[in-house]
Amino acid sequence: MCDMIDSQSAEKISRMKKLRRTLSESFGRIALKKEDSSFDEICVTKMSTRNCQGMDSVIKPLDTIPEDKKVRVQRTQSSFDPFEKPANQVKRVHSENNACINFKTSSAGKESPKVRRHSSPSSPTSPKFGKADSYEKLEKLGEGSYATVYKGKSKVNGKLVALKVIRLQEEEGTPFTAIREASLLKGLKHANIVLLHDIIHTKETLTLVFEYVHTDLCQYMDKHPGGLHPENVKLFLFQLLRGLSYIHQRYILHRDLKPQNLLISDTGELKLADFGLARAKSVPSHTYSNEVVTLWYRPPDVLLGSTEYSTCLDMWGVGCIFVEMIQGVAAFPGMKDIQDQLERIFLVLGTPNEDTWPGVHSLPHFKPERFTQYSPKNLRQAWNKLSYVNHAEDLASKLLQCFPKNRLSAQAALSHEYFSDLPPRLWELTDMSSIFTVPNVRLQPETGESMRAFGKNNSYGKSVSNSKH
């Protein structure tokens, strides 16, 4: 009897070993087929090995956190933009490479956002998404300290793409800004946000594949100096606010708004790009870096050292870009340093005090004796073309508020009277629908004299039917 039991036990053990061996071989084959890891796996691996701080796990608006619960700690993450020119550079230069660095995309080659990364190929040798050899590099658009951007073409569907090839250093791991950009963009699907098509990970590089748009707002304004056509300003601003409202509702801050990061398609579609400095807002067990936003578009609270900010950070940049599109020159083009930048802001908006800006004296870099005491001016005194456009000065003044909490939100700005003569259908569009799907909504030719002529007859909106009110 004992011999029979031993024989049965040995047989069971043998069957179990055989089953385990079979399962092991099956998992091995599955692992070989999965040649590239998902980006979530990349994030987990890199975060666990590099001790990257700042990834937000609990998403919650900062404004809902009681003041006594906010903890201030040492800043640990430097927000360095590898494509940004020095802040103290006197002359504003926008070379082809610098302007194109932020993933220029083309509306002529639109691709469905629902494209699957691992499409089933017709044959084992067919190109497929997620593979480095599925894209052909056509030309280099620009190069930064850790990434090179190429214009490319997909071998899967023939569409033009922008390839951001990030070089990986074994001792440093994946650049944190690349992890942040890809992880955020992967979940954002909106007509006014650049679309991330694909992610390719190899031992040497991490490649982000974006839709291709041929130019950006910086190049567009350089090509049409002196201020843009007022109708075009309105459509560009509406799209910018539409994209920002989408990300702000998801508790995401862009943190680097500037004309170079706003892509413009052939049809005039504006897309937010370059989310390398973007952050998801969370319970502030740490503070954010104040080394964010190009100097000309950086709000005074950040310039004065504030590290506790919310969506109002982006709204200051919107105000600066709005004025620049209308006036044809940057709103606050600081030539020297942060002190000079603040002086230019205070010259127009007035030097702040505790009455106009509660808490300003507690900011690290605010020293009243360092600043000339200016009284606030009407914005049209600084930028005369604001007076040519109905309600433009009022909207700009509500965006360019020194006290952060006074700035208009993106959602509120979309309801401002400045947009009252646009077709009401624009407010009913789905996230992935372009504003140019609405009849009579289109860009106007830029003439160079459009703003001057507009100042004489103030005829904006007559070519657009179905006014909102």
CATH hierarchy class name of the largest domain:
Mainly Alpha
Overall geometry comes to globular
Strand content: 5-15%
Mean pLDDT metric: 74
Unreliable stretches: 26-123, 281-293, 452-469
Q: Which fold name is given in CATH as the topology of the largest domain?
A: Transferase(Phosphotransferase), domain 1
Please tell me how large the radius of gyration is: 26 Å
**Derived structural class:** alpha+beta
Q: What is the total tally of β strands?
A: 10
Order of helices and strands: HHHEEEHEEEHHEEEEHHHHHHH
Tell me the strand order in the biggest sheet: 1-2-3-5-4
Q: Span from first to last CA? A: 95 Å
For the biggest sheet, the summary is: 5 strands, antiparallel
Helix content: 25-40%
Work out the oligomeric state of the chains in this entry: single chain
Task: Produce the secondary structure layout.
Elements: H1 2-33, H2 39-50, H3 96-100, E1 135-143, E2 147-154, E3 160-167, H4 176-185, E4 196-201, E5 205-211, E6 215-216, H5 217-223, H6 230-249, E7 252-253, E8 262-264, E9 270-272, E10 279-280, H7 300-303, H8 312-327, H9 338-349, H10 379-382, H11 392-399, H12 410-414, H13 450-457
Antiparallel strand pairs: 1-2, 2-3, 3-5, 4-5, 6-8, 7-10, 8-9
Helix pairs in contact: 6-8, 8-11
